[in-house]
Amino acid sequence: MKTIITIATLVAMTLIAQFSNAQEANKNDAVQELTAQKERVINTEKEALKKDVESINERLINNEITRDEAQKLKEDAAKGHALNIENRIAIIDNKIALLERNGWKNVNTEDPKIFIGLNTQEENADVILGLKINTGKERTVKYDRRTSSNLVLAFGLNNVIVDGQSLDDSDYKIAGSRFFELGWAWKTRVFKTSNFLRLKYGISYTSNGLKPTDNRFFVENGDQTELQTFGLELDKSKFRMDNIVVPLHFEFGPSRVEKTEKSIRYYTARKFRIGLGGYVGANISTRQKLKYKENGDRIKDKIKRDYNTSDLIYGLSTYVGFGDMSIYAKYDVSPIFKNAEIDQNNVSLGLRFDL
């Protein structure tokens, strides 16, 4: 028992010693960070003053103001930024004084927290023998984030385009044939100071379904796949192709700019946009589902095979919309079936949501 108490005492003393050292180190780090902030404050205000002077000079050149008015505006701007520096430096000096007086406490937000265990949601934390301690360091915010990402969800009607045949004479049901897409997309601003043109790219799962008309289903005959009449009355006949594709679009449209001292952000929410591009990918699955009755029994056949469908998928796509929702159209330049006597190309029209 005494041995256990002795070990516990040694562990406790070690924890206290390491915790004290961490306190001092964290205090010094925080003081250094606040001192560096003072230099950044001065540089930021100087840069802001420079831009104000450039703007005033531009107004003077355009004869919007007189020389006397320009001089007065420059003096006012200089005084304003000088006061900003003075006030902001005073705030930082007060924080340093609090640190020196109260130790390593986080003067920017709340008092630091100690976490038991190895994981925590808190950022900038140290681990000491299983204890996670928030150092109080300020999180770095990237000034200009040119790339963002979002979920893509699309669905709508699907059909086939055949040379010399209109959709009114299609072999597939207009309302019953549908497509679905689910993916993740990244959007990168092309130009440094304008968000009018963006590059949108990502990866998506797409499913193109076709429902044949006139009680027909697909039959694979060698290297040819053709529609034939089924021997019994079909309750359902559906043909589906699943693909993984990489879409790429050039997106055009206005955006809203929010600029602060620490960051600049471009937002396209509730703005018109248009996307032009295409996609390339691979067919990962082809299957056919048949439902019918035979001798009073309900039968459901799910047949998964190649059906001579193209392995490589590529095509053109576009979307036009406002905010998160768009009208979406895509056309497979690659034919549905390889070596077919007459090429059939998948076409889709529906709604797209960039969430």
Give the overall shape: elongated
Count of beta strands: 16
Percentage of residues assigned to helices: 25-40%
Spatial gap, N to C terminus: 62 Å
Radius of gyration: 33 Å
Strand content: 35-45%
SSE series: HHEEEEEEEEEEEEEEEE
Mean pLDDT across all residues, rounded? 80
Chain-wise SSE layout:
Layout: H1 2-61, H2 67-102, E1 114-116, E2 125-128, E3 131-134, E4 147-162, E5 178-189, E6 197-210, E7 216-221, E8 224-229, E9 234-252, E10 256-259, E11 264-267, E12 272-294, E13 297-304, E14 312-322, E15 325-332, E16 344-354
Summarize the entry for a quick read:
The chain has 355 residues and is of the alpha+beta class. The chain has 2 helices and 16 strands. A hairpin with a 2-residue loop joins strand 12 (272-294) and strand 13 (297-304).
Describe the structure.
The protein is α+β, with helices and mostly antiparallel strands and 355 residues long. It has helices spanning 2-61, 67-102; strands at residues 114-116, 125-128, 131-134, 147-162, 178-189, 197-210, 216-221, 224-229, 234-252, 256-259, 264-267, 272-294, 297-304, 312-322, 325-332, 344-354. It has an 8-stranded antiparallel β-barrel. A hairpin with a 7-residue loop joins strand 5 and strand 6 (197-210). The longest helix has 60 residues, at 2-61.
Summary keywords:
355 residues; alpha+beta; eight-stranded antiparallel β-barrel; three-stranded antiparallel sheet; 27% helix; 43% strand; elongated
